[in-house]
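Allow me, if you will, to draw on your knowledge of protein folds for a short while. The matter concerns a single protein, recorded as an amino acid sequence and a row of backbone structure tokens. Could you please explain, in whatever detail you think fit, how the structure tokens follow from the sequence? I remain grateful for any guidance, and I place the record below:

…
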Amino acid sequence: MSQSAESLAFNEVTGELVIASANGDISIRNGKDGSYVKTIPYSGKPIAQSATFIEYDSAYSKLYFIHTNTNEYTSQLFVFKSFDVTNNYEELYTNESGMDLEVVDNFLIDSTGQFVFILGKVYDYYSKIPTVIVFDTISNEVVTQFDLAESFDDETYEGLALNKLDNRLFGSSTLYDIQSLPKRQFEKIVIQPEKVVMDIEEFQTLKAFKQYTDGAQIAIAASDVKWTTSNANIIRFVTGKLNAVSAGEATVTATYDGMSATQKIVVRDYIEHEPVNGVEADKTWTVEFNQPVNVQTIKEKNIYITNEQDDIVPVLYYVEQQNAKNVQLIPVKRYESGKTYTLWIKNVQSSANVELDQFVKKSFTIQ
């Protein structure tokens, strides 16, 4: 094997030895002579600093797999999978980055095979909180999670053990009856827009989340959500993104698993100035605002010039120190003779960080 073994599990029914590697690959060998049986290659996003865990259920009919990062300062990646041992280890379930853990330390399975207990840490700037997530393998849902930590004399003790005879969970210094653990329920879905006020011709990506009774939210795969709008003449979906078509208000609806959520979106109109003809090829435009601007908002996505193909034309920005109300747009190269260009102004803020109520479109043609 090219990768070091991270975790081992032995199937007492089939006599097979399962070896999980640091890169996430799973190798299955004959437990008696070590001969090759099967390899399940890891197909997810590579993790530089990782940990891998595998475990059979008590009936040895399912194999559970966890692959996660071990560096809490990197972006979160958490992969949880289950496989059907009786059907040549066919993959049953995958959950990637859908649980609130940064680092996984251990996981256990109860005697019925229904619940998987995952011990890990939710990382924040100040502390790494030991947390237990309880996953229901029947509903394929996280049913509850709770913090797990006890401190004595400035020392923190954390651990997890399971008594499969009476189905009780021991964590730190507390004993839990598995059946009495609070079970969270799927309550509703919620929509998280990038913005609720859009400009004409603007696009944004909407996301939908499953929200549970304990307040936890888990992202829903985009392919599983049905999106509709109340007025396609104002907003519409184009290749999965919401497109603002014309000024007005409309509502988007996300539908998933028989539930739906709505979000009102406002599309603001622009002020179209009178087109100008006969403009010089090296024209520098000076935009005058009614109060000093926040220079951090003077950038290409807020104030810019497009050509006839709607491509952004490179310009240099200059804000006068003595009069920060004026912004100059200096062309990097001369405009093409006879061509029409458009100056756009939107989302520029004042020096007090108040958005200036101005969405302007101005077309000009070069002489």
Summary: The chain has no helices and 36 strands. The two ends are 70 Å apart (CA to CA).
